Amino acid sequence: MTKAIMNQQLSKFKESLQKRPEHQILERTVTKNGVLASAVDYHAESKMTPVFSIDLDTGDVANQKQSGRCWMFAALNTMRHEIKNKFNVPKDFELSQNYTYFWDKLEKANYFYENVLATADLPTSDRKVAWLMETPQQDGGQWDMIVSIIQKYGVVPKSAMPETYNSSKSSEFNSTFNLKLRKDAVALRKLAAQKTTEEKLEAFKEELLDENYRMLAYSFGEPPVHFDFEYRDAEKKYHLDRNLTALDFFKKYVGWNLDDYVSIINGPTADKPYKHMYTVEMLGNVVDGRQVRHLNVNMETFRNVAIKQLQQGESVWFGCDVGKESDRQKGIMETGLYRKGELFDVDLQMSKAERLDYSQSLMTHAMVLTGVDLVDGKPTKWKVENSWGKKVGNEGFFVMSNNWMNEYCYQVVVNKKYLPAELQEVLKEDPKVLAPWDPMGSLA
What we know:
The protein is α+β, with helices and mostly antiparallel strands. Helix content is about 40%, strand content about 15%. The protein has 17 helices and 14 strands. About 40% of the residues are buried.
């Protein structure tokens, strides 16, 4: 039975407001300054000094500009930290985000086509089909997706494939590319409905991919097949390495076994028991590439494996809900930063699981942990390398409280050797498949 708001109720609400002696002061404050400025807690800011007991020297921060490539920037940043340590490259050295971006776009289009064909017998009103068509491709991604790109295509220094207008400001290309992919989906579904042979479907798909390659080359430039790596190191010594491929470069200058690096999540919802593996349906970029796989653990384990990797001098890729309880300009992430509940005298508290289940939070951004402050062996705050340039935070670095990590961090990527032996065994199990729209499938 539905009930409308009645005039008698409105009178009660007004009377209740008038009984509050502070209501006029707060009304003037909030209407003039907004919610966040009125609710900010100065004392919370004062506790977030950028001093850490473990503090890695990682060089200058990068800038993804007006694109959604944070996951890619964060991953490449962890790798350039390795190159800096091994080869003493200048602090402003970067790997080419445009190079991996090009291949990610091409592969995501192919992955989309495969999902379109796999769901071609479903009506367009079906939730899976609607989910596919909502965003055929986007800038975002996850750790296992960048691994798939690098294992297939390698990496190059930024000098070999620099940024373009479209890589730094991606909205124009994305809207155009998604228009094409949706149009392609119409054609693919029609061919599938006509019981077209697999051979003819593949031939048609190849034509579409040829068009996509052309669009990408015009927008981002064509990736190099061979290149020279020329640089002066931090001590001004000259270096020249000729005729490299992208896979050669990764093997020589990064040298990681990417299969050793695994995704650890903290998703405390009832459908995801800890100490088990999970994947997400229709989530990926490279067909037959690395499967997105998450090991779900409690927050104590989550923090401890990140600390172990930092203690060994290696930075940590992580994913979080960056917009919650954070000040972008000051570079502060602290759960007590804004006292919005106190301001309005309402209870706004939700558990981490409730926020996930009720769409109040999910992973929206990936960055890099480059330090932690340990007091009596326990973390109090973390140093974060962002990819928003030097004009925010402390020269681009943020400070994250341990409480904020507990509430709004969802994923870290660590070398599996830092996991307890029992969890290394869990990595071998077949993952439970989550729905495409599960919050653990969100793209940073």
